[in-house]
Amino acid sequence: MSGLVSPAVFWKNGVLQNLTDGTTDAKGYSIAQVGSDVYVAGAENLVAKYWKNGVAVNLTDGTTQSEAFSIAIKGNDIYVAGYEGNNARYWKNGVSLSFSDGGTNGVAVDIIVK
């Protein structure tokens, strides 16, 4: 491995928006917009997180590999789906809830809130 890292980014109206500074490996997997607020679910250094208007919110503490793959907003609630360790998880307003018991690998890749 060459030590290359990739920043998390998105494009708004054709203009690149950096979510990270490129010094650590990061990914953005899902994007949602509510009014003028833009939310991106992803991970940085295998810490699940989301960004709201470019400001990072960690969902995990980095002790276990994790990523966030999908984000949905309903009212004032923010829902994120992903995994932590072997557990498929979703987070509601930053509170982690498990879909699985960790006995086998589990990953939640999408979330829809009605």
Which sequence of strands runs across the widest sheet? 3-4-5-6
How do the helices and strands follow one another from N- to C-terminus? EEEEEEEEEE
Assembly of the depicted chains: single chain
Helix content: under 10%
Number of domains: 1
- The geometry reads as globular
Give the mean pLDDT. Answer: 93
The largest sheet is: 4 strands, antiparallel
Low confidence ranges: none
Query: Termini distance?
Result: 43 Å
The secondary-structure class comes to mainly beta
**From the alpha-carbon coordinates, what is the Rg to the nearest angstrom?**
14 Å
| Strand segment count | 10
Count, helices: 0
Strand percentage: over 45%
Protein model, in words:
- The chain is mainly β.
- The protein has one domain.
- The chain is 0% helix and 54% strand.
- The protein contains no helices and 10 strands.
- It has strands at residues 9-12, 15-18, 26-34, 37-44, 47-52, 55-58, 66-74, 77-84, 87-92, 95-98.
- The strands form 3 sheets. It has a 4-stranded antiparallel β-sheet, with no helix packed on it. It has a 4-stranded antiparallel β-sheet with strand order 7-8-9-10, with no helix packed on it.
- Strand 8 (77-84) and strand 9 (87-92) form a beta hairpin.
- The chain is globular.
- It starts with 8 loop residues before the first strand and ends in a 16-residue tail after the last strand.
- The mean pLDDT is 93.
